[in-house]
């Protein structure tokens, strides 16, 4: 009898992608076949996001789309997991009879029971506590040369606009030995780039009473892993970004000179309403310190526009901050009223129209800054991680340099030099290249030499759809 097949959809952030990869590993380990197409699958699993309005809509649409395969395809069972279920479990059960099982964001380890139809329809644990480790089966969904490693789950911070602590539970860090073993295993499988993720990366280790560890020391420990080229840090919290961490990033050659630190806003009154625990001066000082301590660092940040109480003057202050700080990468989100958060109870609502106008204005400003910075790169030599043939042209490859994170930043379009002396690079190769052109967020470059050939060990890439 042929194996039952299971198809996975993974929505939301890289932390949710890691959960999907763990569920893939457990499902594969239980003897199921991983389907490449939902129409052929006996079971479909949708790992949802429930963070903000748009993400919730996308999750509901995807569930309804996958449910159609129960009528037209081979699908016998539809399982919904993740943050949307954690947030609206009870309501979803009533409103979505087409779904057979619901699991929460902390029920990743219960996926096989749900796939087999052995568990109750409502399998949502109200207090998420799960945390995978290095022995947990995990099937990776990104190509061999890069991977995410979740070093902690949950968050203890009170940011007033954010529902994540209610969806993911309190901060819980993995033991440093477990993180190190996983990173060593991923590098042994061919990864040259490891992206560390958590809800709040910079509070790593504070909850580990039996370990004298923090993010700075973990980074120095992981920087010892031979074969690793770029250890990249995502989701740093401003007030928890220590001098020791900046020193580790600056001094360790295998640590990408890249910091992703959501600042959310700069106006003191808005930061107070957001309960971020610091004033604008703190962010200004930190940006200055980071640039002084880590020359050439790539700084990524995100802002929320339209938070209750944001006046025209407060928004102008944010624009001034972006103008003077010249961040390399900026994400700007419109405020999303999330019931259950403190911000949802605040006066001074900003209309959607004004929010979107502010988001466009901020991104217009940032695009000019980004374009100027891209232009300054022309003529420079950079190392590019080859991701594969370009969709733009058959004569081009696509890749990323140290200042470009996977999935969220721009690309480098790579051409081979006319001399033809160089062997065509392969996926996963690190190539020395000279920048020849630029666009708003992307670069063009000519490959000069392969500085680190790919040590492909893991070839199979599984089709987890990340919408
Ligand atoms: S640190 Fe991030 S995840 Fe935690 S509450 Fe604040 S915004 Fe949410």
Instruction: Provide the number of structural domains.
Output: 3
Structural Rg: 22 Å
- Chemical compounds bound to the protein: iron/sulfur cluster
Strand segment tally: 20
- Please describe the biggest sheet, giving its number of strands, its sense, and whether it closes into a barrel: 7 strands, parallel
Supply the number of helical segments.
12
Q: Classify the fold: give the CATH topology of the largest domain.
A: pyruvate-formate lyase- activating enzyme
Percent helix among the residues? 25-40%
CATH homology-level superfamily of the largest domain: tm_1862 like domain
Poorly predicted runs: 459-464
| Name of the CATH class of the largest domain | Alpha Beta
User: In angstroms, what separates the terminal alpha carbons?
Assistant: 33 Å
- Named CATH architecture of the largest domain: Alpha-Beta Horseshoe
Structural class: alpha/beta
Beta-strand fraction estimate: 15-25%
What's the overall geometry?
A: globular
Please, what is the average pLDDT?
A: 95
């Amino acid at each position: 009898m042929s194996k039952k097949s299971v198809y996975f959809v993974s929505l939301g952030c890289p932390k949710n992608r890691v959960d999907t990869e763990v569920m893939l590993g457990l499902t594969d380990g239980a003897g199921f076949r991983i389907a490449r197409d939902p129409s052929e699958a006996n079971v479909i699993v949708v790992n949802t996001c429930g963070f903000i309005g748009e993400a919730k809509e996308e999750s509901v649409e995807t569930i309804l789309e996958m449910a159609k395969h129960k009528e037209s395809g081979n699908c016998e069972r539809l399982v919904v997991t993740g943050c949307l279920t954690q947030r609206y479990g009870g309501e979803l059960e009533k409103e979505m009879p087409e779904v057979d099982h619901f699991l929460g964001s902390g029920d990743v380890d219960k996926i096989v029971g749900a796939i087999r139809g052995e568990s109750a329809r409502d399998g949502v644990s109200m207090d998420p506590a799960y945390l995978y480790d290095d022995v947990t089966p995990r099937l990776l969904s990104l190509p061999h040369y890069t991977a995410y490693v979740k070093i902690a789950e949950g968050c203890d911070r009170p940011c007033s606009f954010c529902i994540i602590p209610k969806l993911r539970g309190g901060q819980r860090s993995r033991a440093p030995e477990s993180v190190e073993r996983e990173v060593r295993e991923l590098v042994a499988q061919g990864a040259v780039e490891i992206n560390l993720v958590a809800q709040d990366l910079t509070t790593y280790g504070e909850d580990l009473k039996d370990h004298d560890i923090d993010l700075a020391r973990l980074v120095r420990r992981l920087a010892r892993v031979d074969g690793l080229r770029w250890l990249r840090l995502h989701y740093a919290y401003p007030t928890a970004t220590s001098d020791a961490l900046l020193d580790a990033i600056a001094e360790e050659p295998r640590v990408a000179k890249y910091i992703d630190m959501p600042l959310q806003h700069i106006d003191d009154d808005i930061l107070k309403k957001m309960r971020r625990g610091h004033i604008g001066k703190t962010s200004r000082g930190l940006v200055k310190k980071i640039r002084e301590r880590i020359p050439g660092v790539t700084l990524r940040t995100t802002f929320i526009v339209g938070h209750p109480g944001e006046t025209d003057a407060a928004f102008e202050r944010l624009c001034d901050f972006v103008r003077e700080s010249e961040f390399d990468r900026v994400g700007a989100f419109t405020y999303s009223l999330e019931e259950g958060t403190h911000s949802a109870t605040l006066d001074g609502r900003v209309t959607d129209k004004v929010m979107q106008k502010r988001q466009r204005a901020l991104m217009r400003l940032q695009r000019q800054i980004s374009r100027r910075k891209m232009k300054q790169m022309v003529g420079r030599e950079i190392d590019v991680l080859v991701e594969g043939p370009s969709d733009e042209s058959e004569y081009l490859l696509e890749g990323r340099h140290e200042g470009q994170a996977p999935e969220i930043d721009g690309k480098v379009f790579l051409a081979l030099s006319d001399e033809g002396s160089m062997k065509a690079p392969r996926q996963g190769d690190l190539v020395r290249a000279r920048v020849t052109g630029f666009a708003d967020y992307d670069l063009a470059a000519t490959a000069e030499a392969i500085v680190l050939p790919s040590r492909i060990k893991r070839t199979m890439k599984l089709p987890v759809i990340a919408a």
